[in-house]
Amino acid sequence: MTLWTSDEAARATGGRVSAPWTAGGVSIDTRSLAPGDLFVALKAARDGHEFVADALAKGAAAALVDHIPEGVAEDAPLLIVDDVLGALEALGRAARARTAARVVAVTGSVGKTSTKEMLRTVLGGQGRVHAAEASYNNHWGVPLTLARMPRETEFAVIEIGMNHPGEIAPLSRLARPHVGIVVIVAPAHLAAFENVEGIAREKAAIFDGLEPGGTAILNGDLAVTPILEAAAERAGASVISFGESAACHHRATDIRISGTVTVAQMRAWRQKLLYKVAAQGRHFAVNALAVIACAGALGLDLATAIADLARWRPGAGRGQREVIALDAVDPQMRIELIDDAYNANPASVGASLEVLAASMPEDGIGRIAHGRRIAYLGDMKELGDTGAALHAALADHPAMREIDLVHCVGPLMRSLWEALPREKRGHWTEDAPAMAARVARDLDAGDVVLVKGSLSMGLGRIVDAIRKLRQGAATAEA
């Protein structure tokens, strides 16, 4: 498949081509580059121009650069521009303009990536869908996602995030969505915003880029819902609210977690519907309402959409569950792991604690008489001056009543550790490696274990340590 020719890319960016080429993809990382990709030499932690020679040696079709890098021949296949990031944005803008795809943009303090993946599953059941394979939701991730969009795309899902004020609106205008979704607004990035109302105004900027006649789908259960509604109305959008309160157009009337799925009843379009997702969590069921609303706004077959929604499962680090067998002979000797270590803020940690609280440990199979619900929690970052208080407040979350033990990682999580009742207080460590070293002693067969924290805390080390308990059993058998 040809995604870009050198002529098309030159017209889109105003750049100069040193030799003709055709590209089947777009890459910003030589580690994941596929032969035939256009390599984009972005300047981030390191200057991408340092890797152009390596990219070409690995089979890149060409490189997008602002100068000919040292060690690269002048007749090498290059697209030379004044500004690489600006050129990537131009490619994204051109890719968006040449497709007839209906575009959905998603943002929110929590759950935007899982909602994007639900949409990929649902829309993909009714047409050719394009969405980023990862959380490419920032100033380079959105244009990269758009630049990778094939002409034949019928549905595109664009995730849009932010760290500071003023970031979402230009990305939304670049994506030009037909549907804009705000899943939730919660305390996150408070270091850059005065309050949650400021976060809401920034999230609501996703509606600024809506195409004429577009649809705004927003959470109707929030204190800041009026801010979202006002922004949608200013944009001239049709507004659909979702949630659990009676005022919501798409309303979950009953949500039940059962086994490995969440089943819910809802009311929408003056009718009752039943739907499920193949994951545990009230928050998944609520965000699924936004997906169903989006399917309706796009005129899709709702029965097919609800059936496809039931096939969606969360990805690694986002609430994915797995069973860790501790004994190669006795299948009862096992731990259930909930890997939610990708990111964290107060709302998402609360949602994960609810999932853990609803889980069913197994009694009578380990050293300890009863199975336990155990949480490993790492610092929630970017909460500003309220950070310590927001961490301590987790001790009062209703789900904590059902949780047996909480291990805390990081200086901010010390506030939670000190606020917990002594019987629920596990270990506190400064960092993840120190906690990971303890898991073999601290866990037992029958336990259900949640791992949750901001990505920079590296709680993936704890997840890996828990998984290696399985490897230890295999080694013992050998």
TrEMBL record:
Class of the enzyme per the UniProt entry, highest EC level: ligase
Domain of life: Bacteria
Keywords, ordered alphabetically: ATP-binding, Cell cycle, Cell division, Cell shape, Cell wall biogenesis/degradation, Cytoplasm, Ligase, Nucleotide-binding, Peptidoglycan synthesis
Record-annotated Mur ligase C-terminal domain positions: 334-454
Catalytic activity: D-alanyl-D-alanine + UDP-N-acetyl-alpha-D-muramoyl-L-alanyl-gamma-D-glutamyl-meso-2,6-diaminopimelate + ATP = UDP-N-acetyl-alpha-D-muramoyl-L-alanyl-gamma-D-glutamyl-meso-2,6-diaminopimeloyl-D-alanyl-D-alanine + ADP + phosphate + H(+)
InterPro entries in UniProt: Mur-like_cat_sf, Mur_ligase_C, Mur_ligase_C_dom_sf, Mur_ligase_cen, Mur_ligase_N, MurCDEF_CellWall_CoF430Synth, MurE/MurF_N, UDP-N-AcMur_synth
Localization, UniProt: Cytoplasm
Pathway where this protein functions: Cell wall biogenesis; peptidoglycan biosynthesis
Pfam (any one): Mur_ligase_C
Residue stretches making up the Mur ligase N-terminal catalytic domain: 25-93
Binding site for ATP: G108, S109, V110, G111, K112, T113, S114
EC number of this enzyme: 6.3.2.10
Span of domain Mur ligase central: 106-295
Recorded family membership: Belongs to the MurCDEF family. MurF subfamily.
Function as written in the Swiss-Prot or TrEMBL entry: Involved in cell wall formation. Catalyzes the final step in the synthesis of UDP-N-acetylmuramoyl-pentapeptide, the precursor of murein.
Name this protein carries in UniProt: UDP-N-acetylmuramoyl-tripeptide--D-alanyl-D-alanine ligase
Origin organism lineage: Bacteria, Pseudomonadati, Pseudomonadota, Alphaproteobacteria, Rhodobacterales
Gene symbol of the encoding locus: murF
